[in-house]
Amino acid sequence: MSCATKLPEIVADVVTEKTLNDTDDPAIWVNPKDASKSIVFGTDKNTNGAIYAFDLDGKVLESKTIRNIKRPNNIDLEYGFKLNDSTKVDIIAFTERERKQIRLFSVPDMQPLDHGGFPVFKDATKPEENAPMGIALYKSPKNKAIYAIVGRKTGPLKGYLHQYLLTSDSLGVQAKFIRAFGDYSGKKEIEAIAVDNETGIVYYSDEGHCIRKYYAEPSKGDKEIYCFGKDYFTEDIEGIAIAKYTNNTFLIVSNQQAHTFNVFNAKTNAFIKEINLGTIETDGCDVTTAALGNKFPNGLFVSMNDDKNFFFHDLKKLELEK
User: Fold this and answer.
1) Going by C-beta distance under 8 Å and a sequence separation of 6 or more, which residues neighbour residue 236?
2) What is the per-residue pLDDT across 235-281, written as a single tens digit (0 to 9) for each?
């Protein structure tokens, strides 16, 4: 269970400038030309919402920030999306809940690729079953196809998640529905989704129930691999980040009401430890093990804090590998 006594705080290296409304979920873009100029994107969740862009000092990059988004919820990022035979771009995808769609932009030039948005959950018959919340991008190691896996405010007990194939042709970028999959306990909602591209595994938080584990590759079927972790959370299981090292992969998962994070072994699902990063009521988080210049030479962990900002920690401080 979550520790009864307060854990010592691992103090953040950087606290970002504040957003206008309500931060929720981050995504880290590692700049391939100069990692010290990498960007952290973060959602600001409200009707007058935005996708904020921050530099590694936590300063808002207004030229990279996308405004006038109707309640953006979660965000994810992928590298090398094929626009045509000669052009590949990095992309961010995020949910726009009030417009019942997902958005797709190129990075770092921040150009829309989605004709204004791709509607999701079009077969929904009940209120809020078509209100998207969580999103994760998956690049198949088999054929480099890129998919968006999307969760929603509420949904059926079977097939809660929808998976869309992102493609580009002479008509532009398209999002094609591929499948509905994933069990749901019915207790709260499913928001946090993360995918390990190398293993082809998708993890998602069935809040108040467990971390669920499925195959991200549609050809491998819809059967659940595992449901784990419930006993280590005070209440809601929230944001999931996947830290990949040469010999180990860790899941870092927000224990929201305890204001801490639980760390699991991604392969065995075993609980490793609980850590306190100083954030309150964390929804989303993201991580990279890549060195980001002198500022974060050991990688970066980013977590949402319930004060309209995000915390940046040098990954070494989390002591995942000892």
Assistant:
1) 188, 205, 207, 208, 256, 257
2) 999 999 999 999 999 999 999 999 999 999 999 999 999 999 999 99
Residue 322 structure tokens = 């000892």
- Tokens at 12, concatenated: 């953040």
3 — pLDDT class (breaks 50, 70, 90):
very low
Decide: 105 and 66 in contact? Cβ < 8 Å: yes
pLDDT of 43-87, one tens digit each? 999 999 999 999 999 999 999 999 999 999 999 999 999 998 889
User: What mean pLDDT value characterizes the chain?
Assistant: 96
Q: What is the pLDDT of residue 5?
A: 57
**3-state DSSP call for residue 171?**
coil
What architecture is domain 20-246? 6 Propeller (2.120)
Q: Alpha carbon of 269 to those of 196, 266, 284: distances in Å? A: 14, 5, 20
